[in-house]
Give the backbone structure.
Amino acid sequence: MRKNIVAGNWKMNNDLTQTQALITALKQQTTSSNAEVMVAPTFTNLLEANKALKDSNIEVIAQNMHFAENGAYTGEISASMLKSIGINTVILGHSERREYFNETDEALAKKTDAALAKGMRVIFCFGEELADRKSGNEETIVGDQIKNALFHLEGAAFQNIVLAYEPVWAIGTGETASPEQAQDMHAFVRKTLADKYGNDVADGVSILYGGSVKPANAEEIFSKPDVDGGLIGGAALNADDFFAIVNAF
Ligand code: PGA
């Protein structure tokens, strides 16, 4: 059965001191939520964050990684480097990586393979731009992003993949997809998976929604049958807001 997940993507925010302060605030939160909770600090703070959250129910995850095992890739970080400091989950294909760092479906296929080969779990992000939605192409764009990066995999690989639908027009803009828009796209994604891999695989995959999720809208979005959680940006930088979202489950 698929899990509910709330993951905070801290992006390029919080130096070491700020990271420690946010973790202290997170540890003071209480929850009876049934969701798995994750936070993704920047690379330089992963080790410290993982130590600080070791005995908590919050998993520390990475925002990105390179597909190579090691070598001449200045500034990059590999799956084994993440694993060596106890990081077992990585976000791949965030729209900011695609837009500002030219990440292609092909590169994301390789990154996914590299992470899975190391036994890591992948949170794979995808989503259309505003122009795609205005022209009614959102399902084609999303379907292609998923097929191009993931459909070379065996069905069993999806036990270690979480999908995250993040319409680019809703990220950091304050504009949220309506719960119905999220549900429609999540149902489309699940059907796309079912057509290729069958219902067992499709029904087992958690599909998160991301894009301006806040305490005020989380409960309604998460109430939709194909929405299994959220990938949270801005609101994850505040412990009270983040846990208000976690507690929406
Ligand atoms: P946002 O970001 O919640 O600030 O819109 C979501 C994301 O980029 O994952």
Remarks:
- The mean pLDDT is 96.
- The pocket of 2-phosphoglycolic acid is lined by residues 9, 166, 171-172, 210-213, 231-235 (CB under 6 Å).
- The chain is about 40% helix and 15% strand.
